[in-house]
Amino acid sequence: MRSLPALIVCVLLAGCATSGGVATLADGRTGSFPILTRTFPTATGAVEQPGTVTGDLSVPGGSDRVPAVIVLHSCSGVTPNVTEWARALNRMGYVALVLDSFTGRGVNEVCTGHTPVSVGSRLADVFRAQELLVTHPRIDPGRIGVLGFSHGGWVTLWASQAWYQRRFMRGTLPPPAAYAAFYPAGCNARLINEADMAGGPVRIFHGTADDWTTIDHCREWVARRRAAGKDVSLVEYEGARHAFDVPFFARPQRFAEVVNSSGCAMFQQEDGTFIDAGGKRFSGASPCMTRGASMGYDARAHQQSVADLRAFFEQAFSRR
User: Within a domain: residue 251?
Assistant: First the structure.
């Protein structure tokens, strides 16, 4: 049996796996590793459970400390465009951690609403990943950002809100230094104390022809916070659809079975639950929910969004 001192050295210095997850990245590792987190219920009466998700870490060349970005996939899970964004971040000079919130929970997708993973669970994943990243010798612990797509964009937006930081962060780490959300869901949810935000600036990158997470909700999301003096803005790509950065959809496609909440208005209650416009608890069965949405690649918007994201992170990280 390994002695107690040896075990302590392993946990604190070597980054070995303990209780289902890696305890530290002090060994400078890259590649895939497990992250211990929590899974929060999506149904009334259920209880939270321990969980393990996967992070895939890639670093740029060199030896200096650099910023890092946690990359959050869409409702489809980790797809090739997500890993390509990680490579783009490496080319920008940043460490990238692609966070897979589905596979470890036995979930393939949440687009159709049959096997949901709560935004709360994914927020827990983000902040547990941040705790690990600050231990990596190549990462500047004060310059860690979040980049999310669609459902992951929803998580990104809520990660910037102090209400959720108090709920899901722990310890003394500062909030993330920047939040970038591509065509996020969740802009139509009105939160308690929306202007109570912490951490770095927020940028939303969105196509005007998106019929799944429609841009008008995100315009309103931004306007309410800008009126309160927050560093939040929206970058619009004229005529671009949902998933405008995904070359797989070079020929636009419509998916009849995906759930679509763009017709909903959601309001947060003091206990953290949401009600719909009819005063009932919001769920996938709310009358405002529909099915069907389209996705389509836009090479012009994609190319411009890479430049826009680079400029955003350069500015945000330069402040730290």
Answer: yes
Number of domains present in the structure of the chain = 1
What CATH number is given to the structural domain containing 141?
3.40.50.1820
Q: Which range of residues forms the domain containing residue 49? A: 32-255+298-318
CA nearest neighbour of 153 among 70, 48, 35: 70
Measure Cα distances from 290 to 4, 20, 158, 164 in Å.
Answer: 56, 38, 23, 27
Which residue, 180, 177, 224, is CA-closest to 198? 177
**pLDDT tens-place string over residues 94-139:** 999 999 999 999 999 999 998 889 999 999 999 999 999 999 999 9
Residue length of the chain: 320
Q: How far apart are CA 120 and CA 286, in angstroms?
A: 20
Host H or E run for residue 155: helix 151-159
Give the residue among 122, 264, 291, 111 at the shortest CA–CA distance from 189.
264
Dmax (CA) for the chain in angstroms is: 63
- What's the token pair of residue 205? 């990158």
Q: Is residue 169 part of a domain?
A: yes
**Verdict on whether the full-model pTM lies above 0.85:** yes
- Residue 12 has a pLDDT of 33
Asked whether residue 271 is domain-assigned, the answer is no
Section 5-33 average pLDDT:
64
